[in-house]
Structures are given as structure tokens and as C-alpha cells.
Amino acid sequence: MNTSSRFAFAVHVLALLSLQQGVPLSSDIIAGSVNTNPALIRRLLTMLAQAGLTTSQLGAGGGALLARPPQDISLLDVYRAVDEAQLFAMHREEPNPACMVGRNIQTVLRGIIDEAQQAMEASLAGRTLADATGDLVRAERKLERKRRSTA
């Protein structure tokens, strides 16, 4: 059973671009922040660009940029750009139809999973990249205050 980290990586990338305020970043620089391979970042940037969330500037000093202001990018936009999967998956194999649970579990789970997916998407739709970036800045300020008070 796998979980995808694409959403977390995508929010990381977009937050980094947001904080750079119009300065293009190379996939190498972004990969250094995410602590992953630049090729993975390039694939992620392609998905984000196809969704209209990033753009790229070619040439010397080029790189990735936000295509829209952070307050105009919902976290649901990000999720839909990089994650095709449902929040939870159903059985890979058909459960045993001779068992009461096996006969009915898929129907029961479908309703539960659909409801959870809708709640998650509603939560992401209500938050923007600007909200997430603001949270990052506040967290950093809190760390700085803590460092100064213990120094």
C-alpha cells in the first residue's frame, strides 16, 4: 500500500516559488529545498504547468515561476494537478461473495470513501497557497523568536 507525496512536494514547490516573488527558480534549486532529485521536480513542474499553476522562463537565469498570484491558487487546484487517485482505494481483488461482509463491504465503503473525499476536497478548496505560505512565514518567525530567547 502506497501513499503519494506528490501533493506535499507540489505545495512545497509552489510555496518556494511564492516566497521568491517573481524570481525564477531552477529545478536544481527547488530540488535542494525539497531534498529530492531535480528530474522529479521537473516532472512535477510539468504537471503544475499543465494545470496553469506554474510557468517557466527560458534562458540564462530562467526557471519556474508561479503563473497566478498565490491567493488565486487553491490547495484543491494543487491536489487536482498532481494527484489523480482517490483518497482511499477499494480492494484490488473482488472480496468473497460467499461471505456477508465480502458481499456488502464495497457498497458500504464506497459511500464512506466518497464522503471522506468530498470533505477533504472541500477543506483544500477553502485554503490557498497564500494561506499555506503565510503559515510557513509565521512558523519561521516563531522558530526565530525561540532561538533568540534561548541564545
Into how many domains do the coordinates divide?
Answer: 1
| Oligomeric grouping of the chains | single chain
Distance between the termini: 45 Å
The CATH architecture: Orthogonal Bundle
Which spans have pLDDT < 50 for at least 5 consecutive residues? Answer: none
The portion of residues forming beta strands comes to 5-15%
How many alpha or pi helices? 6
- Tell me the helix content: 55-70%
Sheet with most strands: 2 strands, antiparallel
User: What Rg, in angstroms, do the CA atoms define?
Assistant: 20 Å
The CATH homologous superfamily is named Winged helix-like DNA-binding domain superfamily/Winged helix DNA-binding domain
- Please state how the strands of the largest beta sheet are arranged side by side: 1-2
Shape: globular
Q: What is the class in the CATH system?
A: Mainly Alpha
Number of strands: 2
CATH topology, anyone? Arc Repressor Mutant, subunit A
